[in-house]
Amino acid sequence: MRNLNIELASRVGIPIPPLKQQRVIAHGFDALFEETQRLESLYQQKLTALGALKKSLLHQAFAGQL
Predict the structure, then answer these.
(1) What pLDDT is recorded for position 57?
(2) 17 contacts 24 by C-beta, under 8 angstroms
(3) Cβ-proximal residues to 60 (8 Å cutoff; 6+ apart), any chain
(4) 11-62, pLDDT tens digit by residue?
(5) Alpha-carbon Rg of the chain, whole angstroms?
(6) N or C: lower Cβ tally within 10 Å for the chain?
(7) Rounded to whole angstroms, what are the CA distances from 33 to 36, 43, 55, 56?
(8) DSSP per position, 17-65
(9) Angle, vertex CA 18, rays to CA 21 and CA 34, nearest 5
(10) CA 12/CA 8 separation, integer angstroms
(11) What residue ranges do the domains of the chain occupy?
């Protein structure tokens, strides 16, 4: 927020979960990040394979093999 500074934040009192709960949350974020990376890699592999298939089909079509 534009007008939020440390003094105002300390007066408002922002609740912070216990360290153990913070670690559980951080672990959950780490797991989500790893899964996101895995899915991104899989998506890129699928796009590459789809591009190769398209190229192959176009080559076969123009060569009269379809």
Answers:
(1) 95
(2) no
(3) 66
(4) 887 788 999 999 999 999 999 999 999 999 999 999 999 999 999 999 999 9
(5) 25
(6) N
(7) 5, 15, 33, 35
(8) --HHHHHHHHHHHHHHHHHHHHHHHHHHHHHHHHHHHHHHHHHHHHTT-
(9) 30
(10) 6
(11) 17-62
